[in-house]
Amino acid sequence: MVNPISCNANRAQPSSLRQTKFRRRSWYCALLLGIVAVSLLTGCGTRWISVRGAPRNPLTERLQLGSWSGPKITERTALTLRRNGLNPEADAAELLRPLNDISRKEVLAETTYALAEVAFVAAESTKTSDPRAALEYYCLAASESYRFLFDPRLDQQRNPYDPLYRGASDLYNGSLDAVLRILKSERGLNLQELATASSDQQPWDVSVISRGGPWQADAYERLELAADYEVGGLTNEYRTYGLGVPLVAVRRENMANAAADQYYPPGLAVPLTAFVRPLTWDHWHPDEVGASRSVVLELYNPLQATSVIVGPHRIPLESDLTTPLAYFLNEAELEPLATKGLLRPSHDKHKLFFAQPFDPDKIPVVFVHGLWSDPTSWAEMLNELRATPAVRARYQFWFYMYPTGQPFWYSAAELRQKLADVRTNLDPQRRFAAMDQMVLVGHSMGGLVSKMQAVESGNEFWQAISERPFSEIDTEDAVRDRLAKTFFFRPNPSVHRVITIGSPHRGSSYANATTKWLASKFVRLPGDLVDNVQKLVGMNPGIFRSGFSPEYDTSIDSLSADSPILPVLLNARRQQGIHVHNVIGRKSPTTDGDGIVSLESASLPNADSEIVVEASHVEIHRNPLTILEVRRILLDHLQEMDRWTRHPIPAYDNAIRPALIDRRMRKTREIRRLPR
Fold first, then answer.
1. 245 with 362, same domain?
2. What digits encode the pLDDT tens for the residues 238-251?
3. Do 244 and 358 have their domain in common?
4. Same domain, yes or no, for 309 and 354?
5. Considering only 72-86, 174-188, 506-520, which range has the smallest mean pLDDT?
6. Which CATH number do you get for residue 414?
7. pLDDT over 60 (residue 291)
8. Strand residues in 432-489 grouped as ranges (E)
9. pLDDT category, 472, cuts 50, 70, 90?
10. Residue 6 counted as domain residue
11. Widest distance between CA atoms in the chain
12. Is residue 342 domain-resident?
């Protein structure tokens, strides 16, 4: 006889399974929607840069380069031509020989400028039909505009308030840009090719020299013209104005020439400015074919050098600081690693890398991103900070990239080791004083990772998770060593200042049962970490306190308000002399926090300064007021370091360094304590 209860149970089972599967699909759909939402909020898939339809050119309007009737010389040049018996309506190329003869007989500023402008118009008129002839004309325009600006015979004739002066600068820059553009179209723009460049008229003797940086000319794989690109992923675009052509220089990979090479990310792009000095160019000799002309192509790094010396003159360099950054971010493809680092954290995803050439005399600023993020989230802040001359002159910027799926204390231990390794690799004898003045800037969970570099662990961190003394733990040496590095540490002696931004110092309500469950289903911790913890538990039953199971804990668990580590970190002993600053987010004046972290959780006791910024959690580190606060702190840091270094003390003696708080900023900006 068939049991009716069994039959009912069997009939009910498919419905239960369908409901279970439906619930699972609902969770999966919710997680998928969450991934899409966070990706949109954090800027994943950002198009940082695009190719311009037409390159940026300051001469376009003045010489009517884009008009149907152009290009045309200006009325000022037409006046000079008429005064010398020449027809301004004649073909520009036909005017060059007689105008050149006039200029050779008597060196005058207006004649020199007119020759440069006519040569440029001739080049623009022929660049499509005869690029090699255009190349010759562009060279003449560059030579004559250079003469106008620097020939000592014209010192008494030059007037810096005359529009011709800026016009000559634009002609020089535009001609050099056009020369590089033609060479790029013919053979590609790399320095080996530039050193052997020539025109049909005469060969060139080109010397390529890299100035203002540690990298030589052979360190660059290729050069791009910054004017060809339009920045799309950054709010502001920063340029300086002067002479030279801004370039995007892409570093050559696998050079292995220096200890710092291992810290450069693939495809790193840096700003350069090209400046050419004609050494043996006298006047244009169209009939003297074969006479070599010598020029020096100088490449300046605007993060190091902002001007060039020509005779008695100090000339500011034209530069573009933003386009190379956007170019690198567009090519680096770092954003997909944010999701991989969350869902599949592994040890090989811990990386410390440099955003610019390493300089032993500059103070490192290390950016530490937050949960489900990557270094591209710091692009806005990096772009803004480098726009401040004092900041880019004294600081260098590094990034710590880590898998955000694992608990933050493991990532803090990895950062501690990475910072120790970089010091050992780059400065084993500890001679670089700037590396002992390091600043860490962390967003969200990255703020907790950063703060753990500035505190003393004592026994408190271990006692938060275990009642057993660490010395009584029975485990393998490798596991013991990793536990010791994670839970027993001292403040990093190189770190002088920590800035936390939107960090959940007391945990976040968003790390709740639902998000923990989702994380447990989708986040997969490194296999060796799970295996080691399981062995540890197997050899030491009851080692961990109730509710703490590190083999299953993810970063979501570690950020929960009931995490046993957060209270210890909040009250941990900070080494005297290490300054900590805090930025709190608030979505609006009526909300309690930034949407993820409450005001109470974001507040940090005993911070040297603390401000509240009206911004959401995912935008707070991009907010202009936050960036201004970070800049203020960095400038204060320079003042303190300058005072300190006048009376050198050992790097480990942090006791006598005073804290600096700008009281004027307190009067004009919201820098206050939250009520406890």
1. no
2. 999 999 999 999 99
3. no
4. no
5. 506-520
6. 3.40.50.1820
7. no
8. 438-443, 455-456
9. confident
10. no
11. 124
12. no
Considering only residues 267 and 673, tell me which one the structure prediction assigns the higher pLDDT.
267
**Interacting residues of 305 by C-beta distance below 8 A, sequence separation 6+:** 211, 212, 213, 317
Residues 275 and 375 in one domain: no
Place of tokens 């190091």: 304
Mean pLDDT of 149-168: 93
- Summarised one tens digit per residue, pLDDT across range 477-486 is 888 888 889 8
How sure is the predictor about 324, in pLDDT bands with cuts at 50, 70 and 90?
very high
Could you tell me if 380 and 318 lie in one domain? no
Q: Provide φ and ψ at 317, rounded to 5°.
A: -95, 140
Question: Domains in the chain: how many in total?
Answer: 2
Going by the DSSP 8-state scheme, the letter that residue 306 receives in this structure is -
Strand 293-300 with 269-278, pairing: antiparallel
* 504: its two tokens: 């959940």
**Are 502 and 602 contacting, i.e. CB atoms less than 8 angstroms apart?**
yes
Domain span at residue 494?
Answer: 350-668
pLDDT at 20: 46
Does residue 30 sit within a domain? no
Q: What is the pLDDT of residues 640-658, one digit of tens each?
A: 988 766 533 333 332 222 2
Q: Which amino acid is at 353?
A: F
d(CA 395, CA 263): 17
**d(Cα 397, Cα 321) in Å, to the nearest integer?**
14
- Residue 177, number of CB atoms within 10 A of its CB: 26
CA–CA separation, 76 vs 114, rounded Å? Answer: 8
Same domain for 273 and 358? no
Collect all residues with Cβ–Cβ distance below 8 Å to 302 and sequence separation of at least 6: 212, 240, 246, 271, 272, 273, 317, 319, 321
Residue 614 has a CB neighbour count (10 Å cut-off) of 15
Whose tokens are 């000592």? That residue is 152
- Cα separation of the two ends of the chain: 72
C-alpha span between 184 and 225 (Å, rounded): 9
Among 281, 306, 323, the domain-final residue is 323
d(CA 140, CA 283): 9
Q: Using an 8 Å Cβ cutoff, are 347 and 526 in contact?
A: yes
Pair 93, 238 in one domain:
yes
Name the percent of the chain lying above pLDDT 90.
47
Q: Which of 323, 340, 374 is the last residue of a domain?
A: 323
Kind plus residue range of the DSSP H or E element containing 389: helix 389-394
Residue corresponding to tokens 């994943």: 44
On the CB side of 105, how many CA atoms lie within 13 Å of its CA? 7
Query: What is the pTM assigned to this prediction?
Result: 0.82
C-alpha span between 398 and 364 (Å, rounded): 7
Residue 634's Cβ-count burial label (10 Å; 0-12, 13-18, 19+) is buried
Distance CA 248, CA 638 (A): 29
Sign, Cα dihedral of 40, 45, 48, 52: negative
* Per-residue CA distances from 239 to 227, 242, 622 (Å): 11, 10, 20
Per the prediction, the chain carries an average pLDDT of 79
Asked if residue 10 belongs to a domain, the reply is: no
In whole angstroms, what separates CA 655 from the centre of its chain?
33
Residues 376 and 441 in one domain: yes
In this structure, are residues 411 and 448 in contact, taking their beta carbons and an 8 Å threshold?
A: no
